[in-house]
Amino acid sequence: MEASPKLSTILEAGGDHGKLEELPEPYTHYLDRISCKEGYRAGVYWTSGDHYCGEWHENKRHGKGMHTYQNGNRYEGEWKNGKKDGHGTFWIKSGRYYIRKYKGKWKENQYGGNGTYFGLGGELYVGEWERGKRHGMGEQTYRDWSHKGEAKYHMYHGRWANGKREGQGHLAMSNGNVFQGEFKNDWKEGMGVFYFKDKQSKYEGLWRNDSAVSGLYSRNMKLGQPELPFVMVPSCEGLNKQCLKLAASQPLPQRYDKTTRRTDPALCTRKFYNVLYKSPLLD
Q1: What pLDDT is attached to residue 72?
Q2: Are 145 and 274 in contact (CB under 8 A)?
Q3: What is the spatial distance between Cα 160 and Cα 185, in angstroms, rounded to a whole number?
Q4: Residue 159 placed within a domain
Q5: Are residues 93 and 175 both part of a single domain?
Q6: Maximum distance among all alpha carbons in the chain?
Q7: What does the radius of gyration of the chain's CA atoms come to, in whole angstroms?
Q8: Is the pLDDT of residue 175 over 50?
Q9: Which coarse location class describes where this protein primarily resides (predicted)?
Q10: Cα–chain-centroid distance for residue 259?
C-alpha cells in the first residue's frame, strides 16, 4: 500500500549545506495519481472547477471526451496522452449560449492540420494550421467593417506562413476589386496584378510593402493603344506627381494604416479595415 504524501517526505544529503527537504505533493495530486483512471469515466472534477467526461488511459485523458473549463468554455473531441490531439471542436461560453470557435484537427493542444476558425461578424478561415497558426493553403473571409448596413466581406485564398499571408494569393475585395500576386509578411510584395471593378482597368507590376512601385497601368484601353507606364521614384517629387496625375482616373487599391491594422488574423477585431486611404497612385 502506498504511503500518504504527508508521510513520504524525503531527506537527502546536501554536503556542507546540510539536508535538503523535498516538499510533499498536494494531497489532491496524490489522490489523482493513485486513482489509476482507465477506460470511460462519467465525470472527473478538478479543484479549479474543470470537469471532464470521457475516456482515460494510464491516468491521462486519452480517446474521446468532453472537457468543460471553469469559465464555461468547452472542448469536445479526441485526446492523446492528456492533450487535445486529433479531431475536435472548441466552444466559447457567451451568456446562455455556446459559440463555436474552432472545428478541425489538433496537435498537442494546438490547432494542427485542416480546420475551420470562426471569427466575429461572420469572419471565417478554412485551411491548414501548424502549431496554432495558419500555415499552408487556406481561405480567409474578412468582414469589411467600414461598410455600414448589410455585411460585406473581403476574401483571400492562397498560401500562409506563421499566421500571415505568404506566397501566391488571390484577394477579392468587397468593392469588386481583385489582386492576384505575391504576398510577404501579410503585405503585397513582389509581382502582382490589381484588377479594378470595371474589368477594363488594371495595374500590373512590382509591389513593395503593400504599395505599387513600378509597372504598367491601363484604363479603358482601346485595341492597340499603349499602356501607361507608372514608376514611383522616392527622391523625385515632381516626376512622381506627373506620374500620379497621368495614371489616376479613379480610386485604386485600398490600403490599411500600418499603425492600427491587424497583423495577426487570429485576432478578430475591427481595426483591420476601419482605416482606409488612397492608393500611392493618387495624389
Answers
A1: 93
A2: yes
A3: 9
A4: yes
A5: no
A6: 94
A7: 28
A8: yes
A9: cytoplasm
A10: 19
